[in-house]
Amino acid sequence: EVQLVESGGGLVQAGGSLRLSCAASGFTDDDYGIGWFRQAPGKEYEGVTCISRSDYIYYADSVKGRFTISRDNAKKTVYLQMNSLKPEDTAVYYCVATGGLGCPKNSADYWGQGTQVTVSS
Fold first, then answer.
1. 45 Cβ partners below 8 Å, 6+ apart?
2. 96-112: average pLDDT
3. Distance (Å, rounded) from C-alpha 95 to C-alpha 105?
4. pLDDT tens digits along 43-93
5. How far is CA 77 from CA 7, 27, 36, 88, in A?
6. Where are the alpha helices (DSSP H) in the chain?
7. Which helix (H) or strand (E) holds 79?
8. Distance of alpha carbon 64 from the chain centroid
9. pLDDT tens, position by position, 5-41
10. What is 43-55 written as a DSSP string?
């Protein structure tokens, strides 16, 4: 059974930083794409960033230059370093994954439980 376990959410002031992590388990091989969605209050889900098996990386325009996705393949863990946080980054952040060679930009096969990130002004 595939599981995505997140940690690192919390409250931070505008301009600050947070680092989220997501540990993936249950995949039978290393062929999966993994990343992060978020849902801000009153808004639809947004694909924040993802990284594919072949190291293709996508960033939403809203976070480009501020957020960095990385992974530890041995630990099957992905990280989201969030710098220069803005109040509009406030959202529930979900670790997501998709089996195969793709990158979960708009849809995903697997979801984590979500973690709240709140940026105060």
1. 37, 38, 39, 94
2. 93
3. 12
4. 999 999 999 999 999 999 999 999 999 999 888 899 999 999 999 999 999
5. 11, 12, 12, 26
6. none
7. strand 77-82
8. 13
9. 999 999 999 999 999 999 999 988 888 999 999 999 9
10. S-EEEEEEE-TT-
